[in-house]
Design a protein that fits this description.
This protein is an alpha+beta fold and 740 residues long. Among the domains are: 8-201, Neurolysin, domain 3 (Orthogonal Bundle); 213-277, no CATH class; 415-596, Orthogonal Bundle (Neurolysin, domain 3). It has helices spanning 21-24, 30-35, 59-78, 86-94, 98-113, 117-138, 141-154, 160-176, 182-212, 228-240, 266-277, 289-305, 311-316, 324-358, 384-387, 392-407, 411-414, 420-436, 520-537, 553-556, 558-563, 570-576, 588-596, 603-619, 633-644, 661-664, 674-692, 697-708, 716-724, 732-737, and strands at 215-217, 247-249, 365-366, 371-372, 439-443, 454-459, 465-474, 484-489, 500-507. β3 (365-366) and β4 (371-372) form a beta hairpin. α3 runs antiparallel to α5 (98-113) and α14 (324-358) crosses α24. It starts with 20 loop residues before the first helix and ends with a helix.
Length: 740
């Protein structure tokens, strides 16, 4: 999930020269403003962006104008001769920069979801501009002294959201380095500039590396095991990527590739797996390690400048976990429960594989290896013992077969019941209606940045408009991998602004006229991202800075993970899980088999997450001198995993260091643990719903009022406790939910 930027340039992660007299005098020119569509007031409902008029060449000049506009607004605050007050300083700052936030939100939406050559070119100029302006604002001492004066003199007398806004603004500046001495402040600004460029370079390289890693297939026989629809998708993907061969397999974000569960041909499985794990480690056309080690050193130096031992300590200060000791205590508790299960399950898969190979009849071509098997039950090119040793690229294949044998169904049996349109309307929207009283109405009059998108009005129980919701579900070469939620505009009572929320996913689009069918995991992803969307839609906060998903990383994933629980509630499930041809609900027996299998061999999912989390923490617990070189980085990864007991070829990290976009290109540095942390919160909340009525409006309205509507207006642990009645999160719930 991608979090919305708070006031865009005023968010963590965007870096940013001291305010100069020359820069202060810049003013937006009226003639330029009129000629640029992005600087004009939108005539669409709720200030929705009018993509029918926005051109790729509009963004850079519009952002330059918007920066000049906010610069003038801040100068007006600093030039005010009156004593600094909440109203003339903090509130004035909160109300500044509206155009910059709006335009930047639109631009960064396209950077992630539809990065054409024109957008990529604009990004190369816009990122440095935004970085410079971030530095300019955060290290403007005249401005900060006004903020500090208000904090020192009014913090104890303010109440509610006013008090919280003052606290957030003040700490935002101090956390950026506003209290540093001049020489350290100058170095911090240089670090911010360097980091912004490096993070952009990493983000640019990753999708290109994934495209380069595409596995080309000449003979359709090699695709044995795939469904007709999957083979058709491989053909379509090959055509859209230049047609180097008739078919291709596209590499997704994660280490393990979902397609490995179906491919019979072992040598092709090995090619796909190797393409995935080596996409950016220097063995191919791309190598991200030189960028990564520079980012790690600069972050470590930044933390030291701020007086912290390492970047993790610096970053965690603003989270629920608070410090590295708490994070590692949490992780070790999980690792202790996970390891015995992982070893047990790996052994079971290995035994199953051996049994399968031993069943092969003499003289047959082995589907598992794609090789001729002779009468002695061995391959003509390698002994049977060699290919019965379970490899990482075998695990999904054999676990899928084990699952089918044990539960007597396969993913292909259930996919016809997960039509994307039905999942959205009859599942996600239906659950939101039952729990929160919401209704959704598709609109055809709101322009989008891509023809595959849909837009919906979001209506409250009383019929009043709450939000606009945009869906962008299908993958394309211009979209980065993964799934996320963000906003073109956030909710704010002070600004009289309704939220404009969007979800983005990467599903393979079915051929024209055919329904797009999803796996169960993809179905859950849709529910997950819509949970984030609800957090934005149902926000009811006074200030833009505090609204919606503007919460700590280890809380922001809770609403999304909790919303996944509705996908399997029988009443909701039966409402959307209907055969795309007959509209018949999934048979009870098949539904019970599928839902009963969800925790089958569940150690893998927890283990890959734990391994990635520990890599993230290890990289960000280093001092500058401890950061390895680019050449040493792969060995460092193995050392870290070995020391914490997670070096396991069978269960590699969900994201290896070299393609871990969450921490090197996204906003989750020293924060990937938050997915597990907030899953604990989500399970606790789901348990509360189950006990008090999962689909009852009373419980839903209570959750909406106490949690989803509150944004960052209160202490997050207090928000959690007020709803659940728990004084602290109960980690046992997560292990139980994961079948451990």
């Amino acid at each position: 999930m991608k979090q919305n930027l708070k006031n865009v340039v005023l968010a963590a992660g965007l870096a940013c020269t001291a305010l100069t007299g020359q820069a202060q005098n810049v003013r937006p020119k009226t003639t330029q403003t009129v000629s640029n569509s992005l600087m004009k007031q939108s005539t669409l409902p709720f200030n929705a962006p009018d993509f029918s008029h926005i051109k790729g060449t509009d963004y850079l000049p519009a952002i330059k104008l918007a920066i000049a506009e906010q610069r003038a607004e801040i100068k007006k605050i600093t030039d005010n001769k009156q004593k600094p007050t909440f109203t003339n300083t903090i509130l004035a700052y909160e109300r500044s920069g509206k155009n910059l936030e709006r335009i930047s939100n639109i631009f960064y939406a396209l950077v992630s979801a539809d990065k054409t050559g024109e957008i990529e070119k604009a990004q190369g100029s816009i990122v440095p501009l935004m970085t410079e302006f971030e530095n300019e604002v955060k290290f403007n001492q005249k401005f900060f002294q006004r903020i500090k004066y208000v904090y020192d003199h009014e913090y104890n007398t303010l109440k509610g959201e006013d008090k919280k806004l003052l606290e957030v603004v003040y700490k935002d500046f101090t956390h950026a380095g506003a209290l540093l001495p001049k020489e350290k402040m100058a170095r911090m600004q240089e670090i911010n500039k360097e980091l912004a460029k490096l993070q952009q370079d990493f983000g640019d390289m990753l999708p290109k590396a994934a495209n380069e890693a595409t596995v080309w297939v000449n003979d359709v026989k090699e695709l044995s095991g795939l469904s007709e629809a999957d083979i058709a998708q491989c053909k379509k993907d090959a055509e859209s990527r230049g047609g180097k061969a008739p078919y291709c397999i596209v590499i997704t974000n994660t280490t393990q590739q979902p397609i490995l569960a179906s491919l019979d041909n072992r040598s092709l499985r090995e090619r796909v797996y190797n393409a995935s794990i080596h996409r950016t480690d220097g063995t191919g056309a791309y190598n991200t390690f030189p960028i990564i080690v520079k980012i790690a050193r600069l972050r470590a130096e930044k933390a030291q400048l701020m007086g912290y031992k390492n970047y993790a300590s610096y970053s965690l200060e603003k989270t629920m976990a608070k410090n590295t000791d708490n994070v590692y205590a949490f992780l070790r508790q999980m690792i202790g429960a996970y390891k015995p299960k992982a070893e047990e399950q790996t052994k079971a898969i290995e035994e199953y594989m051996k049994a399968q190979v031993n069943k092969l009849a003499s003289g047959q071509v082995d589907k598992l290896t794609g090789e001729q098997v002779n009468a002695n039950n061995s391959s003509t090119s390698q002994p049977v013992n060699s290919f019965t040793a379970l490899q990482p690229y075998d695990r999904f294949y054999y676990s899928s077969k084990m699952k089918k044998d044990q539960f007597n169904f396969s993913d292909d049996d259930v996919k016809p019941y997960f039509n994307l349109d039905s999942v959205l309307v009859n599942g996600i929207f239906y659950a939101a209606h039952r729990v929160y009283g919401l209704s959704f109405r598709e609109r055809k009059d709101i322009p989008t940045y891509h023809k595959d998108m849909k837009v919906f009005d979001v209506l409250d129980a009383d019929g009043k408009q709450l939000a606009l919701f945009y869906c962008d579900y299908f993958r394309r070469p211009t979209k980065r991998g993964g799934a996320w939620m963000s906003a073109f505009l956030k909710q704010s009572l002070d600004r009289n602004q309704k939220p404009l929320i969007y979800n983005v996913c990467n599903y393979a689009k079915a051929p024209e006229g055919q329904p797009t069918l999803l796996t169960w995991d993809e179905t859950q992803t849709m529910f997950h991202e819509f949970g984030h969307a609800l957090h934005g839609m149902l926000s009811h906060c006074k200030y833009n800075t505090l609204s919606g998903t503007a919460v700590a990383r280890d809380f922001v994933e809770m609403p999304s993970q909790f919303n996944e629980s509705f996908a399997s509630i029988p009443e909701v499930f039966n409402h959307y899980a209907r055969h795309y041809k007959t509209n018949e609900p999934m048979p009870d027996a098949l539904r019970e088999k599928m839902l009963g299998s969800l925790n089958f061999l569940s150690a893998y999912a927890l283990g890959e997450n734990l391994a990635a989390t520990c890599l993230d923490m290890a990289w960000h617990c280093l001092s500058p001198s401890e950061v390895p070189t680019a050449e040493e980085a792969p060995a460092f990864e193995k050392k870290v995993l070995a020391e914490i007991g997670l070096l396991n070829a069978q269960i590699p990290p969900r994201y290896s260091t070299s393609y871990f976009n969450h921490i090197w290109g996204g906003g989750y540095a020293a924060g990937y643990y938050s997915y597990l942390w907030s899953e604990v919160l989500a399970v606790n909340i789901a348990d509360y719903f189950a006990e008090h009525g999962a689909l009852t409006r009373k419980v839903g309205d209570d959750f909406r009022q106490k949690v989803l509507s509150r944004g960052n207006t209160r202490d997050l642990m207090t928000i959690f406790s007020d709803f659940t009645g728990l004084k602290a999160p109960d980690t046992k719930g997560l292990l139980k939910a994961r079948g451990m």
